[in-house]
Design brief:
Blueprint: E1 2-3, H1 9-19, H2 28-36, E2 40-46, E3 49-61, E4 64-74, H3 83-97, E5 101-107, H4 111-119, E6 123-128, E7 139-144
Parallel strand pairs: 4-5
Antiparallel strand pairs: 1-2, 2-3, 3-4, 5-7, 6-7
Helix pairs in contact: 1-2
Protein name: Ribosomal-protein-alanine N-acetyltransferase
Family: Belongs to the acetyltransferase family. RimI subfamily.
GO molecular function: N-acetyltransferase activity
Length: 156
C-alpha cells in the first residue's frame, strides 16, 4: 500500500460511481478535502493503476484517541483478490500506532465486508437506521479495540 496520490483522486471518484452509485458517491473534491484535512489515505496499485483506496481519520490525543474508517473501495474487477483486506490492514496499522479504538459503518446487507471486519477484530456495537442516503439502507456500527488493548476496556 502506498500513500494515496492527488493524481489518483479522479480515479477514486470514478470507482465511487461504480461502487456506491445508489448511496451518494464521493466526488473528487470530497477526496481532496479528506487529504487537505490530513486524514490517512492509502491506495492499492496494479501496474501503476489505482485499483483500491481506503481512508482513516485519527482523532483526539492520548490517552483518548479514536480512529474512524471513512471508506474502503476496490475496483469490482479486483474484488475477492485480497485488496480490501490489505487496505484494511494498512489502516489498522495506522490506528494501532496511535493505540486508537477504531470505528466504522457498514451496510447491514454487506455480508462480505462484515465478515472481513469481524475477521480483523471488529464487533457490531450499534445500528444506524437509514444511514445510507438516498437508498435508506441501514448500517451497523462496528468497533475494534487497539491491538494489545485488554478486551472490554477502552484503548483510547
Amino acid at each position: 500500500m502506498l500513500k494515496l496520490r492527488r493524481s489518483d483522486l479522479r480515479r477514486c471518484a470514478e470507482l465511487e460511481q461504480v461502487l456506491f452509485a445508489g448511496d451518494d458517491p464521493w466526488s473528487r473534491a470530497a477526496f481532496s478535502a479528506e487529504l487537505d484535512q490530513g486524514h490517512h489515505y492509502v491506495g492499492a496499485y496494479l501496474d501503476e493503476r489505482l485499483i483500491g483506496y481506503a481512508g482513516l481519520a485519527v482523532n483526539g490525543r492520548p490517552p483518548h484517541v479514536e480512529a474512524e474508517v471513512h471508506t474502503i473501495g476496490v475496483d469490482p474487477e479486483h474484488q475477492g483478490e485480497g485488496v480490501g483486506k490489505a487496505l484494511l490492514r494498512a489502516l489498522l496499522r495506522r490506528a494501532d500506532e496511535h493505540r486508537a479504538t477504531t470505528f466504522l459503518e457498514v451496510r447491514t446487507d454487506n455480508e462480505a465486508a462484515i465478515g472481513m471486519y469481524r475477521a480483523h477484530g471488529f464487533e457490531i456495537v450499534g445500528l444506524r437506521p437509514r444511514y445510507y442516503q438516498p437508498s435508506g439502507a441501514d448500517a451497523h456500527t462496528m468497533r475494534r479495540e487497539a491491538a494489545g488493548a485488554p478486551q472490554g476496556t477502552e484503548a483510547s
